[in-house]
Amino acid sequence: MTRLLAVDWGTSSLRGALIDAGGRVLEDRHFARGILTVAAGGFPDVFESSFGDWMTPGTLCLIAGMAGSRQGWREAPYCACPAGLADIATHLEWVEPGRIATVPGVSIERRGVPDVMRGEETQVFGALLLLGLADARLVLPGTHSKWVDVRDRRINHFSTWMTGEFYALLRQHSILARTLPAADPAHDAGAFDQGVEHALHSQGLLHTAFSVRTLSLFERMPADALPSYLSGLVIGEELKAQALDHGDTVVVMGTESLTARYEQALAHLGVSARRVGDGATWRGLRAIADTVATA
Amino acid sequence: MTRLLAVDWGTSSLRGALIDAGGRVLEDRHFARGILTVAAGGFPDVFESSFGDWMTPGTLCLIAGMAGSRQGWREAPYCACPAGLADIATHLEWVEPGRIATVPGVSIERRGVPDVMRGEETQVFGALLLLGLADARLVLPGTHSKWVDVRDRRINHFSTWMTGEFYALLRQHSILARTLPAADPAHDAGAFDQGVEHALHSQGLLHTAFSVRTLSLFERMPADALPSYLSGLVIGEELKAQALDHGDTVVVMGTESLTARYEQALAHLGVSARRVGDGATWRGLRAIADTVATA
Lengths: 295, 295
Known about the structure:
Strand content of chain A: 15-25%
CATH topology of the largest domain in chain A: Nucleotidyltransferase, domain 5
Order of helices and strands of chain A: EEEHEEHEEEEHEEEHHHHHEHEH
Distance between the termini of chain A: 11 Å
CATH architecture of the largest domain in chain A: 2-Layer Sandwich
Largest interface: A-B, 40 and 40 residues
Strand order of the largest sheet of chain A: 3-2-1-4-7-6
Structural class of chain A: alpha/beta
Number of strands of chain A: 14
Largest sheet of chain A: 6 strands, mixed
Shape of chain A: globular
Oligomer: homodimer
CATH superfamily of the largest domain in chain A: 2-keto-3-deoxy-galactonokinase, substrate binding domain
């Protein structure tokens, strides 16, 4: 059980935490140095200036997220599903053997079409440990939401949903943008619920999105309520496709405001949301490090 | 039976045709003077300069399209479904009584959510007359596709699908734009078919759209084929929601290239496409004029 430098190096941010053998976070740091800001060949210098002083002899560094992609520091090819902690740990890509490694993402293929995630797998494994679960259904809402099925501690299945991005496209670039207020008004829970209900009982977002325009045209909804209504439409569309049953529980891991919206939307289906505390990524990386150490 | 000046005045273009009592088009004109180019109060002048010389005594002018909207020349409020030619003809909005009128659009409401169309109703009535049909299922593909159900010559039901606009948003403004070639390559029928199939057998566009990225990432499809694949995804998504049965026939009214794509996509469902010749709007306006004349 070594001292661990756990790093989450994504597209737009770089976070690191120094974690002792018992899993305690001693210190953490955050930098606006996502991989998009790093030139080819520039990763060692950014790493050294950010965390060099923590890399004392015997410290292991594991890096989750897009730093392990083709555009990152060192590509760690995707592990195919089903994938558990041990599968991830045996497929680390060593930048410096025994010292610094990138963590692979996970891939799946259905009917000849692949799907991928990178970074979320570590969050998921950490969440399972924090919650003490071996089987779970999880959603990580965001620009590209991930729905993940875990069976016996392994990621059995997952899928990507471009829900946050569709919202932003419709909000900013579609004909609906003319109807919506330029600045974001406060969240309107009633309008959000109307959007979720309409999505759950209609034939698809290509059709329901147009209702943002007609509800405005017929003065059925004030302009300030329309962004929340649209948010309900896209999130409801995502939930509708998940084949959830009344009484199910879903683990929701996102920002506070998004988690609250998903909780509100899931309630329409009689599904409970379970939250995870902070530190899922750190907990996941600590567990991968422990697996490496005992292998 | 009077001489008719039939006008189709839409958002981005202005077309007019001079039609004799027998329905023969004597002459037609086209101007880049859609209603978006006309300042408030400017409609009479644009009309006069475009068609004034055709408005000899006894000539009736009927104007379909967005010129009849709130932002147009004279608002003709929507007729509620079910709506037939006679309903439209009795709700014309007269700019000059007995001489110039705008044609109302059609509206419908389900579960408190309205839907609208304006201009397409006239095309639909014209198509029914050109094809000799009293009952039909029609699609008018485009930026906002319309699906229309006609029973006994009346528009019984319709719905709007933002299919063309979603394609453009994903093509130009989404993360997928980075993967797609900047210029549009030639239509790739095989990739289009793959997109349609994936949409028909998957859980929704929020999910399937991401496959444009992963197919590229895993080098399963060349970049030049991706725009056609994406087109297949969005059109397939639209068709999937229409509850079509094997053996059905759908009347398709669009540009040549879009009509061909819908025909290709409908074939995946065992549905036949029936085309309509040119002049559906002129035929529809002639029929409305005849209804007015005999009322």
